[in-house]
Every structure is written in structure tokens, then in C-alpha cells.
Amino acid sequence: MRLALFDLDNTLIAGDSDYSWGEFLISIGAVDEKKHRAENDRYLRAYTAGDLDVAEYQAFCVAPLAKASREQLDAWHRQFMREVIEPLMLPKAQALLAEHRARGDYLMIITATNRFVTEPIAEALGADELIAIDLETDATGRYTGRISGVPSFQEGKVIRLEAWLDEHPEIERAGIYCYTDSHNDLPLLEYVDHPIAVDPDPTLADMARARGWPIISLRR
């Protein structure tokens, strides 16, 4: 079975789910607006520049989660899906997923956003598998603020993918497709046979043109 990889943020959805989650927490009064937005904006700039400290960022993201019960978090996430994520869904992205599904491909979303935020989104999109940043929990099931295992960011996406492929010999290693908007995914794009830039950031757009990679839009 052939594999089709998809980044999530600004690729399959028209926005950044991690950043949007922070804005959602502000909107419901779960965090201090001024402080949280300033940090959220700072980390987004670092990600865009390609120099994000992913462990530090996840500690920031998880801090509000550690203060709430799982029931409260699940209720917040259902509201987040309805009010924030569903309007960001892209019909062309859903059509692309359906096209690969019709070919019999195995659909994986591979993202540098944490699993808490992205798992319900991946389910809504009908992905077969999700590789995301896994978060450590304590004995009570509350998030500690630390990452569990290798973070799926930059080279970490390749490390996580190779480990997953080792566990799934039924998936072909040849002919893998990869769709992403971000230059942070260059290691993954270089790993696969079919790299595709999707509404790419300026750095990735330049790289794609230089290397002859297809550039597509799921927004226009």
C-alpha cells in the first residue's frame, strides 16, 4: 500500500491549529489575553523563521491544559472544532484526500502540532494515521508540559516516520507523496519520492521552484 503524507496547518486547513487554539483559549477567558497573545505571536514568528524551540513552545501550549480536567478540555475542544476549525476546512483539501483514498493510498497527517489539538481534526478529515507531538502525562492523566518521545518537527518528522514504517511493513517505502506548506518540512520533502508544495511559504516556494517540485493551491 502506498503512503500519502499531509502536513496539517496551512496545508489541509486554512490556518494554524496551534496558534488558533491559543486564540481560542483567549476568547473563552481561559488565559490572560495580553500575555498569552504576546507569547503566541512570538512563537509563531520563530516557527516561520525556522528557529522554533519546540520543547519550550509545547511547554507554553500545555500550561493551560495542565490546569483543567480532561472533561473540561474535551468540552473546550468540541467548541474549538465547531467555532474555529470547521470554518478553516478546505473543500479542495478534502477532495485531494478523497482522490488519494480512491487510489487505495494510506493517508497520514504528520504535524508539528501536539496530539491533543490535532487528533480530533485528523479524525474529522478521515486520516488513517496521525503522527503528532505526543505530550507526557502524569499518573493522574494530566499533562506535565513535557514532550514524550521525539517531536515531529523538522528532522523529527523523518525520524518518527521511519520508526512508524518499521512497524508497518505492509506500507511501501517507495512512491511516498508529501504535501506541505512549510520550509520546516524540507527534511521530509527530501525523504519522499513525490514532494508537493501546497500554498507554500516564500522560502519553500523558492526551494520548490529551484528543485522542480510541483506547487499547488488548495485555497484558490
Q: Short description, anyone?
A:
The protein has 220 residues and is α/β, with parallel strands linked by helices. It has helices at 17-27, 33-49, 54-66, 70-85, 91-102, 115-125, 155-167, 186-191, 202-211; strands spanning 3-6, 106-114, 129-137, 143-148, 177-180, 194-198, 215-216.
Features:
220 residues, alpha/beta, Rossmann fold, de novo design (two linked rop proteins), 2 domains, seven-stranded mixed beta sheet, 9 helices, 7 strands, globular, Phosphoserine phosphatase, metal-binding
Distance N to C terminus = 31 Å
Reported for the largest beta sheet, the result is:
7 strands, mixed
Number of domains: 2
Portion in beta strands: 15-25%
Low-confidence spans:
none
Specify the structural class: alpha/beta
If you had to describe this structure to a student in words, what would you say it looks like?
The chain is 50% helix and 18% strand. It folds into 2 domains: 3-15 and 90-216, HAD superfamily/HAD-like (Rossmann fold, 3-Layer(aba) Sandwich), CATH 3.40.50; 17-86, SG protein - dephosphorylation function (de novo design (two linked rop proteins), Up-down Bundle). It has helices spanning 17-27, 33-49, 54-66, 70-85, 91-102, 115-125, 155-167, 186-191, 202-211, and strands spanning 3-6, 106-114, 129-137, 143-148, 177-180, 194-198, 215-216. It is α/β, with parallel strands linked by helices. The protein has a 7-stranded mixed beta sheet with strand order 4-3-2-1-5-6-7. It has 9 helices and 7 strands.
